[in-house]
Amino acid sequence: MLRMASSFPEEVLEHVFSFIYDDKDRNAISMVCKSWYEIERWCRRRIFVGNCYAVSPPMVIRRFPEVRSVELKGKPHFADFNLVPEGWGGYVYPWIAAMATAYPWLEEIRLKRMVVTDEALELIAKSFKNFKVLVLSSCEGFSTDGLAAIAANCRNLKELDLRESEVDDLSGHWLSHFPDSYTSLVSLNISCLGSEVSFSALERLVGRCPNLRTLRLNRAVPLDRLANILCRAPQLVELGTGTYSAELQPDVFSSLAGAFSGCKELRSLSGFWDAVPGYLPAIYPICPSLTSLNLSYATIRSTDLTKLVSQCQSLQRLWVLDYIEDIGLEALAAFCKDLRELRVFPSEPFAQEPNVSLTEQGLVSVSEGCPKLHSVLYFCRQMTNDALATIARNRPNMTRFRLCIIEPRAPDYITLQPLDDGFGAIVEHCKDLQRLSMAGLLTDRVFEHIGNHAKKLEMLSVAFAGDSDLGLHHVLSGCENLRKLEIRDCPFGDKALLVNAAKLETMRSLWMSSCSVSFGACKLLGQKIPRLNVEVMDERGPPGSRPESCPVEKLYIYRTVAGPRFDMPGFVWTMDEDSALRLS
Amino acid sequence: MGLDLFLSTTHNKGFDPKEMLGLKPWNHDDCLLDKKRSFEDASGKLKKDLSQTLPLLLWSGQPNDEDDDNREKKRLNSCPLTKINEEIVEEDDHVVGWPPIKSWRKKVLRQQQAPRIFKNRLAAAASWKENNGGLNSKYVKVKMEGVAIARKIDLRLFHSYQTLTNSLITMFDKCLELEKDSTAKYTLAYQDKDGDWLLAGDVPWQ
């Protein structure tokens, strides 16, 4: 074996490795032998860090000196739902500062749930001469000034995507900082911005970038300007409209319809803020070729929604509000046979009574009619074990299943039983299930099913479920591929965690909030397992000021080779050995 | 601490789940079982609040404030009905982060839902008033454009638009340094039960 490995010159190996993109494969290659490790690390161009605190910038740079593309994720997923207080962390600046000197040829930065400042953006703009891609997904901490720096300086920029970020929107003027000589834009997503950009600047930008394929506008772009923009970019593949509402005027309608018809490559539509039904027919001509439709901001009702989706025979992805109702989902099941992903969001999530006729039946219909459906996010107000079992039997190819029943702990509304068996059927039939979020009334039994069957499960989200530590124990001991576990408001305490402590090192992270894990157990975990960061979040004050048996508010445990972090705010305490001594 | 971290025996039947719950929560706002009740409590409180408040009085030419933030602190400064909107449309304080919807999606929902819910609650407030023969006081919140903090006043203490206007000027004078002749620049507007904005003074005071 050794002879074989050294019989290829380095250049040949490097050339072979250059065809390997997947991180897992690259990691496997690097473990074959020392020389392969060395060759591989010098030619790895792309790194993905799923938890920015799992490793430090110097460690990454030391091992991979020639990186061109970096992807980092910061805050825990539950930060999306306001469960992580402000100031928790996830700062990207230290990474940018380190990479500015180490990776002058860096081309791509993709960040999710990180705090990005204007200083960081300015540093990016001036440090990386060949910078091409900036994706800021659910990030915050920066303003349009930072965007202006990027626009003004990144001459080779191809992609600027601000999806779902919270931007301090000082003005729309930043867009005008793209110089007239700049023509390389391929993808622009500014849908999260509130302020108006200069429409003429936008139109000129669109007009001079022949490779533009993705354009997601913000709500401030009025409908009567959309036609002009589309006419300058008939090659667009993905479009996010601005506000889709205006007084019905025949000339506006006809130029809009004409503009849409001219976009023969258009496959994905989104936006549709404040959509009025009268302007929907403008997109009918391109509906048959649409593969992705995001109507989750459109408050149009089931009749119009049904008419619309019935024409989208090529649809693969649909995001929509529950205005679609069961009747619209039945139409979806009948006409959209290529559907792969469905997300149904609640139009009135805080109303106590249902405002639309969307029930478990809608999801059942789609599971019956759409053979390729494998990814579901569904908000509803009622569910039965039978419906879940039917869905499971219909769709054994399900890989991502997220159900949210608005009322916590809602039982099967017909039998009044817990939904254990329903979710049990899901994990039993859907052998490739990677992601699961459960809802409704659930006992320890559902966790037993999950532990026994969900062998491919990588991410599990649990809320208001279970009776005892046995539930958590089933999951930690049974789910071999579990990487991320997030739990809130469940009666899980110390025992299951401590018994399965070794498991935690095989996972990316564990989140537990409003559970019953004691401060003492947290300390123990932190001290005994050095490669775990055990962080306690408690806004009531230092956990040491309360008895050891007292449960902590929030607990975030993640594996790391970088040791405890130093940028924690006042309400986060690390349980590592040294700190624990200081605490007591 | 005698716990053996690598114990691998399964739990015996005698394992008492309540033992874990019995760990006295130190200051849990609500115990898990009460969360459902408190959600209902909050809505019950909501109905009581409605009876105390009336249409919003806004003092500016731009009645509809842009949704500039969704931070908890600033919420407290908004008018009661906007606050009610936020209590309805935003998460119940007792169950943070539920249902699990991303904050920016909630923001968009709020912007879309506000006009409709506002109207419904106004109608509810109006009908409550009719059914209960009037109130002892008519407190309304007044917000001035450019001033972060709103004021509350009892309409029953005034008997004309002029006296109301004068008092409001005096009240807000403390926040801004208003020159006496700048009062002419301000207009008083209010929102009736249909959600329409009207200029004060068109209709007789009564």
TrEMBL record, chain A:
Pfam families per the record?
A: F-box_5 (PF18511), LRR_6 (PF13516), Transp_inhibit (PF18791)
- The regions listed as transmembrane in this protein's record are none
Q: What is its pathway?
A: Protein modification; protein ubiquitination
List the SUPFAM superfamilies.
RNI-like (SSF52047)
Q: Which residues form the F-box domain?
A: 8-49
Keyword annotations of the record: Auxin signaling pathway, Developmental protein, Nucleus, Ubl conjugation pathway
Q: Which domain of life is it from?
A: Eukaryota
Q: Record's CDD domains?
A: F-box_AtTIR1-like
- Annotated coiled-coil positions are none
Keyword Nucleus belongs to the record: yes
The GO molecular function terms of this record are: auxin binding
Q: Does the keyword Protease apply?
A: no
Q: Where in the cell is it found?
A: Nucleus
Q: What is this protein called?
A: F-box domain-containing protein
Q: Which organism is it from?
A: Hevea brasiliensis (Para rubber tree)
TrEMBL record, chain B:
SUPFAM superfamilies annotated for this entry? Answer: CAD & PB1 domains
Q: Which key words are in the record?
A: Auxin signaling pathway, Nucleus, Repressor, Transcription, Transcription regulation
Q: Record's InterPro entries?
A: AUX/IAA_dom, AUX_IAA, PB1-like
Q: Which domain of life is it from?
A: Eukaryota
| Location in the cell | Nucleus
Residue ranges annotated for the PB1 domain, each copy included: 137-206
| Chief localization | nucleus
Subunit structure, per the record? Homodimers and heterodimers.
Family, similarity comment:
Belongs to the Aux/IAA family.
Q: What does this protein do?
A: Aux/IAA proteins are short-lived transcriptional factors that function as repressors of early auxin response genes at low auxin concentrations. Repression is thought to result from the interaction with auxin response factors (ARFs), proteins that bind to the auxin-responsive promoter element (AuxRE). Formation of heterodimers with ARF proteins may alter their ability to modulate early auxin response genes expression.
Q: Specify the protein name.
A: Auxin-responsive protein
